[in-house]
Amino acid sequence: MKDTLNSWKDGQAGGGRMPFAFRIRNECCRLALAETLSTYVMMTFGLGTVAQVVTGDGLFGRYLSINLGFGLGVAMGVHIAGKVSGAHMNAAVSFTMCLFGRLAWRMFPVYVAAQMLGSFMAAGTVFSLYYDAMLNYCGGNFTVAGPRATAGIFATYPAPYLSIPGGFLDQVLGTAMLLLCLMALSDQRNQPARAGSEPLAVGLLVLLLGVSMGSNSGYAINPSRDLPPRIFTALAGWGPEVFSAGQNWWWVPLLAPLIGGVLGAGIYKLFVELHHPAPPRIYGAQPREAELEKSATSELCV
Questions:
Q1: Is the pTM value of this prediction over 0.85?
Q2: pLDDT value for 58
Q3: Where do the H-state alpha helices sit in the chain?
């Protein structure tokens, strides 16, 4: 198997020369494709876990299974695109990176469009995969609320007790913790994740957020995770109620994570990153700060 992989890498397969004429060299296209695929994989595993838990009535997993599904899905997404696009898979991460100068603003719509596309395709994939199971579970009536509701497989909805202000705080705080920890994991002058362990570290972070902050509203903490599947369900049979449910909840996981991401990254920078002692300079050598900043920018993933 290793020899086969090496032969493909060298442009050879089956003893013959394989010309890679289809290789895309445009950087913008490469980043968009990687970001789309990583988001698709993360969301397919995550939503698939929710579908299995819901339609199985608890026989094939419970709440912890969903947290594990999304955590491991994020880890796989980082493996797929971490060294290409950074595997943001989250519009709040991309927005924060642009605001802090780690991603060009011109790339922001490219990243968000790629994430939205990957997430929408993942919703369609899980819908097709579990269509029969959902029909069996709900009796053919796709509902947003009630004992046999299935809309929550795809998008997040608030718990019955949760107010809009409480839900907004939930999403701001959850995303702030996400970006705060991501900044720490990528800070080369602190205690970053070891080279090669970044996917596991980010996946464990998402798992930690799920088991500690997930019960109020499903810890969307990601506009790219929530909006495209919600649009898909509106088109696929659940109707406009997916936007009006939960006191018009849909806009909260769209806006609050953007605020939370900037808040969390800013707190880490204010409390830790800005106060690193300046490294000693060596005459004629490139400043170490520039190298570290470049490394931190390329390795920040989620």
A1: yes
A2: 83
A3: 2-9, 27-55, 63-81, 91-99, 108-129, 131-138, 164-185, 198-213, 223-233, 241-248, 252-271, 288-299
**Which residues, 6+ apart, have CB-to-CB distance to 61 below 8 Å?**
49, 52, 53
Q: Which of 15-29, 58-72, 106-120 shows the lowest mean pLDDT across its residues? A: 15-29
Residues 6+ apart with CB under 8 A from 157: 144, 145, 151, 217, 218, 245, 246, 249
Tell me the CA distances in angstroms from 221 to 176, 189, 197, one per residue in order. 9, 27, 23
User: What DSSP assignment string belongs to 214-278?
Assistant: -TTT-----HHHHHHHHHHHIIIIITTHHHHHHHHGGGHHHHHHHHHHHHHHHHHHHHTGGGPPP
Confidence band for 301, pLDDT divided at 50, 70 and 90: very low
